[in-house]
Amino acid sequence: MQFSVKVTNYQNDFMLNICDAHLLGKNVAKDDFTLNISKSFYGQRIVERDEAKDLLQKCSTINMVGKETISLSVSLGIGSHQGIKEIDGVPFLIVFKM
After folding, report:
1. pLDDT (tens digit per residue) in 60-77
2. Is 72 exposed, middle or buried (0-12, 13-18, 19+ CB in 10 A)?
3. With left for phi above 0 and alpha for psi between -120 and 50, is residue 11 left, alpha or beta?
4. How far is the C-alpha of 89 from the C-alpha of 76, rounded, in Å?
5. DSSP string of 58-94?
6. What local confidence, expressed as pLDDT, does residue 13 receive?
């Protein structure tokens, strides 16, 4: 499985935007809300599972989209099932580590 990631330094913390690579460039919608899974936000580069795992563990703010991404994150103890929301069948999760 491949993941699309973008890492930025935000207020001296690393922020990770990560999604399942096959979702990159798609829009999902529910009612009056649309989530654009854009290359500018999620598409800096494509990584494999091991590097995604490393980034998830290192970054303090994480925006995640996709079943594989969120499954990997939850398996690492980052985030929980209670925080997961879905739009048009696509899960997303935002995590702030303290």
Report:
1. 999 999 999 999 999 999
2. buried
3. left
4. 23
5. H-SEEEEESHHHHHHHHHTTSS-GGG-EEETTEEEEE
6. 86
Residue 48 tokens, joined: 């494999």
- Is there a contact between 82 and 38 (Cβ–Cβ < 8 Å)? no
Q: What is the pTM of this model?
A: 0.93
Residue 11 has pLDDT above 90, yes or no: no
Q: How many domains does the chain have?
A: 1
Domain that holds residue 79: 2-96
Question: CA 17, CA 55: separation in Å to the nearest integer?
Answer: 10
CATH of the domain at 19: 3.30.1860.10
